[in-house]
Each structure stands twice: as C-alpha cells, then as structure tokens.
Fold this protein.
Amino acid sequence: MLRLMKKFSFWYILYPGLLLVFGLPLYNHDRLSGPDPLGLSFAFYLAPMIWLVLGAMWSHEQMESKANGYAFLRILPIEPAQIVKAKFALVFIAVAIYVGGCCAAFALVSTDPEYLIPSCAYLIVHGDVCLVAAALLYLGIFRLGFSRFGKYVLIVWVILLISPIPIRLFILKPMDISDSDIMQFMRGPYWIIGTFISLAAYYFLMKLAVLKLNERYA
Amino acid sequence: MEHILEISKLRKEYPEFVLDDIDWKVPKGYVMGLIGPNGAGKTTTIKLIMNLIESDGGRVNVFGLDNIQNEKQIKNKIGYVGEEQYFYDHKSAAWTGEFVSHFYDKWDQERYQSLLERFQILPKKKIKKFSKGMKVKLSLAIALSHNPELIMLDEPTSGLDPIIRREVIDFLKTFTKENDKTVILSSHITDDISRIADYITYMINGRIVMTESKDALLSNWKKIHFTPGSLDKSVIDRLESVENHMFGSSGLAKNYPAIHDTLASGLASGDIKVESVGLDDILIALVKGD
C-alpha cells in the first residue's frame, strides 16, 4: 500500500506547496504574539485553505482517469481494497498534516489554551468536513467514474473554497454571530464529538468505497 | 494430465451476448490456442479468468485455487497481455517496471531489462510516444518478467503489422518452450495460433465447441475432393461444408481416420483427393455448422 500511496501522492505534495505560498504571507508573527493573539482569528484565514486537499484529489483522479490508471492497476496483483485504502489514507494524511501544521504554528506563538484550543478546534472541524466531503466524492467517483463525476468534485471544491464569504455575508452577519462567538462555541466539547463522528463516517465510507470500486470493476 | 486452469459452468450474460455455462480445462506446460470469430466470447472468458469482470455463475480454478477468493495470489503468477494496453503513459518503461516490481513476488529486473533491450524499447522514453507495437512489447516484457506460471494473451497481435506480429509470436514460441510455461493465446488470427499452439479450443457464440491437440485436430480434419459417384452417400453425409464446383465436390471430414479405408479405391484411381486443412478452414466449417 505504501508503494501505491507514493504513486498517488504527487498532487498531494504539490498542493501543500500552494498552501505554503498562500499561507506564509498570512503568517504574521507580530500580530499573533500581540496581547490578543487570535483576536482576528488567524484560523479564519487558514481553515478554508484545507479545501485545497480536495483540489489535489481532483487533480489526482483526473490524471488517473486520463492514464487509465484503474485499468492498469486492475491487472496487477493488487486488491481493490488496497487502492481505496491508499487513496483514503493520502487524503487523511494530507488533512492531518495541514491541520497539525497549523496548530503547531499557533502553538509556537500562543501557548495560552484560552486561544490555542478554540483555534485548533476550528481548524480540526474544517478537517472533519474535508474528510467526509472527500469520502463522499470518492464514492461518487467509484460509482460513476471520473469522466461522469469529476465535474462534481470540481464544483464542490470551488463551492467550499469560496464558501466563507457567503457564509459570513448571508448567514453569520444577519444572525449577528461574530468571530468571538464562533471561538466561544469552539471552546465547548461539540467539536470533539463532531470529530469522532466524522472519523467514524470516514472509515465507514471507505469500506463502502471498496464495495463501490469492486462493483465498478465488475 | 495436470491442469493449470479448470473452468466449470462459467456464465456471463450481456444484453446481446451470453457466455453459456462453459467447461474448459487447460493442461499444464502447453500452449492453448483459443480461436473464435469476433464476439465469440474469448475476451470475456479471459477477463473472467483474470477476475476483471464478474461472472453470473460457475467457477474458475487457477493453479487449483478459486480465482475470486485468491485473486492476488493468482495474479502474482499470471502474465497477462490484454487486447488494449494500459499504462501510466506519461511515465517511462523504466518507471513502469520499477513500479510494478513492488507487486510481484518473483519480479526479475534483469530479465525485464534484457527484454526491453531485445524489444528495442528505450527505458527512459515516455510511453505516450510508443507505437501500438511497442506498447504490446512492453506489456509482454512486464508479463514475462515476474516468472509467471501461466501466460494469458488476449489478441495480443491484433492491430500489429505482420512483421512485428511475427516477431512477437516467434519470441513467444521460443520463450515458452525454453521456460516450460503454460500459455493461453486467444486470437482470431489462426496463423499466429498455428505457429505456437499445442492445443486448440474453438469458441463460437459463447460456447466452447471443441478442444483438441493441434496435431490430432489437423490429422482428423481433412478436405476431401471427389468426383460425382466416387464417394458413398453415407460418407458424404458425414462431411462438413460440402460444396459443388465444376470439377466435382469437396467437403471437410472431421474424423478422417474413420473414413480413410472407405476412400482407398477412390484415392488409388485419382477420383478422390485429400488435402490438409488449416485452423481457419475448421473455424469456418464450425461457424457454418453452428
């Protein structure tokens, strides 16, 4: 499976490069280490970038589709479950590295749990959503094939990328929910429950994806 | 005789085609040619053996193992070349060899490199720049480089020019004899199969209509040319594809040794002539008689 992951990893390595390009200019040590390090919530800027993992997934599947990768792998002594597990593991690792990296960056400048925990929780929730979205999109790809379903991956990705703006303008602002309200919510235990649920869902969807790929191969 | 492949009651249904409960055995250490017209079910059968498609019934045992329960183990010992060659074509042959080597227990890198050399495949050249013939050769190099016990070739030479086709078949002939491999070669090009096969299976309309050793087949099937009145009606009735023409008639005998004695006088007088047939003559007769 490691060999497959290595083969599939190209886009998952390239896209984090983009994350760095976009993310680094936002990393402002002075502001973060100020009296209210997360006042503007640096997490609000970094969290949506996690959707780039879905971009990596889309690029990877597009390449596999163009190269007839699934047909090639099918004749090798590889079980479909190994292919699915390798793909799901890559998404999981990409999300974990991104979320973990951002949390580590926060921890470097702010050790105050009052700010650190909700910021990391906010990022983790984005990671949870990203995992479930990726798993559902993979189900679609295995069921219908990339040629039919690939465009939906792209649409979901773009929608998620731009979602923070309409969410702020049309949901949070009219409901008078501020960044600090969100941060206050993240201090509660809900994100932990949500993370367990999303991890369980991710595992369940991976099992389902194995069945779908088997059906597609048949 | 030990069999490397045993198929029983294998079935696959498509809207316009049915692979109809076929039973088939392939003896170990021989080359089995699978002949049939387009759409006979050759590719479907091979894909079912490789578990590339799902059957609607029946069983396939390869190396004595169920092909679905033991798919990975079986594929590890099969060299497969399909009708279409699939590769990551933005990659090179060298990369492809290195990639697939991780999945085969008995990958022989030296053999792979020597096969690339023999087939004049540039290891660093991107596969998308390969011709169809080069892709077939690369596919063959991969199929033969992990010491497979069974080599399955599904129409590997279709679409190739006669020179490359001959080169591929001659190489396979030498390789299989030298290494004592079992081969299943499917093709509608009977000339290819005639050059290499020990056993022949004819497949028509989703059914296996005959499996015999090539030598027995070619000695049993003969073309009989006869003048009017020179052959008993009872013998004529046993001939396939009887045709009348200006010099008399001709037909195919499918069990020539059984009628040989009754032809003795006709053969002596020259009223009856016996001619050897090719595998395609037999195929045509079987298709007409189906």
